[in-house]
What does this fold into?
Amino acid sequence: MATYLYRLGRFAFRRRRMVVFVWLGLLLTGIAGAATLSGPVSDGFSIPGTESQRAVDLLDERFPQAGADSGVARIVFQAPPGEQLAAPDNSAAVQGVLAELRTGPQVAAVSDPYTAQAISADGRTGYAQVSYDVAGQEVTPESREAVAAAVEPARTAGLTVEYGGDAMMEQGEQSAAEVIGVGVAAVVLLITFGSLVAAGLPLLSAIIGVGIGIAAITIATGFADIGSGTPILAMMIGLAVSIDYALFIMSRYRHELSTGLEPEEAVGRAVGTAGSAVVFAGLTVVIALGGLFVVNVPFLTQMGLAAAFTVVIAVAIALTLLPALLGMAGRRVLGGRIPGLRGGDPEGSGGKPTAGRRWAGFVTRRPVAVLLTAVIGLGALAIPAADLELGLPDDSTAAPESTQRKAYQLLSDGFGAGFNGPLLMVVDVAGAADPQAAAASTANAVRALPDVAVVTPATFNPAGDTAVLTVIPTSGPSTTETTDLVEAMRDLPEAAGADVSVTGVTAMNIDISNQLNDALLPYLSLIVGLAFLLLLLVFRSLLVPLKATLGFLLTVAATFGAVVAVFQWGWLAGLFGIEGQTGPIISMLPVFLVGIVFGLAMDYQVFLVTRMREEHVRGAAPGAAVVDGFSHSARVVTAAAVIMIAVFTGFILSSETLVQQIGFGLAFAVAVDAFVVRMTIVPAVMALLGRSAWWLPRWLDRLLPDVDVEGEKLRRRFEPAVGSEREPELAHR
It folds into this structure.
């Protein structure tokens, strides 16, 4: 592979104007397409095949009037202390709001709290339900603004009025996250290279690559239902890996220039060596993200494929556009020094020992103590993960000062927390001899269950073959008690000829969480298995891929522990701007985080250990190979990790809880994996394993293709004298 990439790098260098023109053409075409072909994004969550979705499909077919998948807003009114909501002035204010709401866009029906018996026992609090003729995620900003305008007169009249519900959930908005990430990346690149030109080219290539990827995803919104979080997460991943991949090739290019090579030859060798590591690092990320299809959750698969697409673009950009830009810059990447920054060879060749070499020497001299300290520390960080609770965001996790959170609290105080998450029980009585009796029997059985506050009488469709019961739990929608209630309702003995199912937003959230939990182990097995085979090809070793996988599991455990501590327990929540918004971890986070973290963890594994193997293949003793390879990679891996951490941390500012949690989780995971696992545990384990780290059975060695990631064939081609001095035990390769 190194030879082919060497030729590709030189081709891009020689035909640099054509390569740059092609990529800029793709970017401009993508921007034009995004501006003319894009469509709206969606915020819906659904999983085909679950019981809740089957119930919705049945109601859509037989009882569309029930509006099972329609958006709902709850308008909560509260009279001032000492007053009743039924007082004439207060009642007039409420009726005025209801009248205005009925004229709003997309509104199908508005209930009256006075006639629907939706007044609390103390008479102060009541709520009206606004049903829309579209799903909650399809309610337009104009419709939400109409609600905000309708309630103002009642507030002026002295009532407390707040609103919530799935129709009122704010759509995710772009933040300054990407700007923050790019800004920090620029500073890190300047410090790493000490040159404006060298720092600017990776940023430029990354911005072009991410622009093409996001433009393509935006175009896809005009032809498919794309979730609002998909382009944000694709940008998050694409921006981070694009800068990192360009950084590694740029670093190797400057290193080759420092040895006296001409720019074209330096580009070829940089792409042939560092580019090989980029290809395999990118493949691990693509495998991890593309493997999300096994989870069988459409929106999660979509997010994974979109992010994987941006990674493919990032790899292609690093292998072609960056060499073309280097062809235009030539040796200027060594110039333009910034006063106060040392610049020079970022791989630390020559001169006094670097911090990376000193650290590697310390670790390899005391491998057991370092390894135990690191593992015990990560184990302690992982302890909160045992308390992991999964759910989907609702109004209880909205910002404390938001109207959604206030409406949730008013309903909980006036009626009970369960009113915020009603369950819809669908009774298919098409085969029942007495449909009315079957529905009544089902309702009585539900009333006898624990944690049930209210069961409404059955409502039948015009054909009389389907009935709907609304069940109000005692507990809130995100509690384990409500989850147990849903399971108990589904386990009830069915009346003769009746088929019972449970749906509603709360039941759907429970089904999504269950399916994601069930899919985690198969997904983890798939990506670990495929990546193990890939790393086996890269490193031609059994123990190195095994060590990489075990290190990843440590990273994931510690990351889950940190996510639970911050987002569920509320530790340091104020520091991250989520104070008062703690609650269950979003259901899809573990699966998505496992995939992305695995891909990124293997990035650093490939970049770091490839240089160790390169030194080993050249004949260095095992201990010296670890120290030399680490010293060449440490500064660049550190810069890459800091850039990724900065990019991901910026997304904590997102208004979407999922993006916020993923941003925090990825930033923490990269910090742990890069600095604790890869730069501490890896050299310690490699030192303990010695020569056996590179052991591979001869029969397996003969079966595996030689992908030559370390560029040994290139080295033999250009340095035959040195190549002939390799140790005999390596010659069988």
Summary: The chain has a mean pLDDT of 83. Residues 505-539 form the longest helix (35 residues). The CA atoms of residues 194 and 342 lie 6 Å apart.
